[in-house]
Amino acid sequence: MKKAIINSNHYLALAVSSCIFVCSILAFVFVYHQVGLQMQNTAVAYTKMNDAQLQENNAKNVVNTLAATQAQRALLESFFVRDDQTVGLITQIENVELKAGAVSVTIASISDDDLSAASIGTTGNIHAHINVKGPWPNAMRALHLLESLPYGESIDNLRVTPISDKEWNIEFDLNAVLIHE
Questions:
Q1: Pairing assessment for the beta strands 104-112 and 168-179 based on DSSP bridges
Q2: Fewer Cβ atoms within 10 A, N terminus or C terminus of the chain?
Q3: pTM
Q4: Is 118 helix (H, G, I), strand (E, B) or coil?
Q5: In 28-48, which positions are buried (b, 16+ CB within 10 angstroms) versus exposed (e)?
Q6: Using an 8 Å Cβ cutoff, are 107 and 132 in contact?
Q7: Nearest of 163, 110, 118, 117 to residue 136 by alpha carbon
Q8: Per residue in 141-177, pLDDT tens?
Q9: Per DSSP, which regions of the chain are E strands?
Q10: Which H helix or E strand runs over 53?
């Protein structure tokens, strides 16, 4: 009889140790899974933190660039003729005649792109055909003054012809960039 008790104790010990073994494997799997989830959550948190720092650095760079280029942007804006300055451009062209002296400055034709329905910041062009008549030094001074208008303009199709010994005719196309504001 004693033998049966010993065998049943062995079975009981085997059953208890088997239960402990299974429970420890289950606990290991549970802890392993939890650690994996925490690592994933940590990786996601680090990624979000790095993205936020990158966005913050990009925003600082944009602000610094805007501050550093403020003078250049203001200068660049001065090269464009705003749509409310078109009449002022025409007046400046006509006033060259007074500054150059003894010349006739005529705007033979002028046209601009219609930007009235365009969105703000849209650019177009102002096209003018100009005739300058007068003595050579005065005509060249008028041409220089027209080239030196405070806008980013270009002069194309320049034709210089003598009218007489003392009078010259200078014809050209003046194009300026127009911006809708």
A1: unpaired
A2: N
A3: 0.61
A4: coil
A5: eeeeeeeeeeeeeeeeeeeee
A6: no
A7: 163
A8: 999 999 988 888 889 999 999 999 889 999 999 999 8
A9: 81-82, 104-112, 123-134, 153-162, 168-179
A10: helix 2-68
